[in-house]
Amino acid sequence: MQFVSLPHNTKPEQYNTWLQAALHGSHTDPFCCTPSWQLAFHDAFGPKRRLLITEEEGSVIAFAEGLVSEEEIYITPLEPSWFFGCPLLGDKAPQLFAEAMRFFAKTYAPRFPKILVGGLGPGLTYMQQLLNKTGLPLQAHLVKAGIQGSASLEGGLDGFLSRRSANLRRNLKRASQKAADKGIYFERVLPTTAEEAQNTYTRMIAVERASWKGIDHCGMAEPGICDFYNFLLERLAPERGARVIFARHDDRDVGFIFGGLAGQVYRGQQFSYAHDFHAHSLGNLMQVEKIRWLCEEGVHRYDMGPLDGPKMQYKTHWTETAFPLRTWLVEKA
Question: Residue 197 CB: number of other CB atoms within 10 A?
Fold first, then answer.
């Protein structure tokens, strides 16, 4: 067991096992467990961090080292901002975690780092089982709790809409007619090369800068987060994992919606539309077009991310299932 460093946009030797473990687990947010999500964040926000990625019999653990000072050391998932993804994947992950804890105890002795494990469901039982396997005097504290929203795509688009409110269906029908009268149409994009990903992302950022988020400098066009989504789209391209739809008017992009696939689960990421088109319900209409596309592909589930937090209330109209998401801090007892 050892730390490694990864150059930009490269893959660790455990990549395929990592991807398969993320796709076939029962995690709250499977897409954010994938190496594409985790490594894109690493490339954008912490490319100099040392990584501990190890596998055994189809299971993987993936952590990053964060050195605040010689005395303050953190071990976290590669994406330690939202903690959507779980760094412990597969049946052998608890044993790998125990080995990693003993490795950290030896590597940093006499200190022991603070370990953050996110992307877990509710309850202390699993965490306590992890600690028991280490044979070390460790304790865990719940440091973050959230709720993720999800919708079934069973029954196709008609089935999905049947589970929405009558009021939402009426509003969508009215908005769709208004958009058609305006000449708004939708274009599907599935980038498969780095060049296609870059061209697609350039279009997305142009829309974002024309949106209220871009005007207020609080969206994905800002430094750091702009690189993250760029790298994410780039990593998804060779796996054919990205799904982007543009709303267009005449020869202009006036909206986009973007997300990625983890097997038969789609995870929404970002959508935006030009501020001068705010009266045309493009957010809702692009959601419908995205669901239409996903249903045609046989996707089973649409994950919409966090339901709690500012400006997330709209998601309750589009989802019917809520999954708890927990982050734990492990430290010396």
Answer: 23
pTM above 0.85, yes or no: yes
Q: What is the pLDDT of residues 74-95, one digit of tens each?
A: 999 999 999 999 999 999 999 9
Domain spans, the chain: 15-147+324-332, 154-299
Q: What is the CA radius of gyration of the chain?
A: 21
Q: Examine the pLDDT at 282 and tell me if it is beyond 90.
A: yes
- The sign of the dihedral angle between the CA atoms of 32, 316, 255, 152 is positive
Phi-psi sector, 41: left (phi>0), alpha (psi -120 to 50), beta: alpha
Residue 98, number of CB atoms within 10 A of its CB: 17
| 261, β-bridge pairs | 266
Which runs of consecutive H residues, i.e. helices, occur in 238-281? none
Pick the CATH number of 154-299 from 3.90.1150.10, 1.10.3720.10, 3.90.550.10, 3.40.630.30: 3.40.630.30
Residue 190 token pair:
């599935």
Q: Enter the tokens of residue 105.
A: 């105890």
CA separation for the pair 85, 97 (Å, rounded): 16
